[in-house]
Amino acid sequence: MAVTLAEISKLRKLTGAGMMDCKNALTETNGDIEAAKEIIRKKGQAVAAKREDREAAEGCVVAKAEGEYAAIVALKCETDFVAKNESFVTLTNKILNAAMAAKAKSRDEVLALIIDGVNVATLITDEVGKTGEKMELGDFEYLEAPYTTAYIHPGNKLATIVGFNLADTDYQVAHDVAMQVAAMNPIAVRREEVPAETVEKEMEIGREKARQEGKPENILDRIAEGRLHKFFQEFCLVDQAFVKEPKETIQQYMSKSNKDLTVTAFRRFTLNEE
Question: What's the rounded mean pLDDT across residues 60-81?
Answer without folding.
Answer: 96
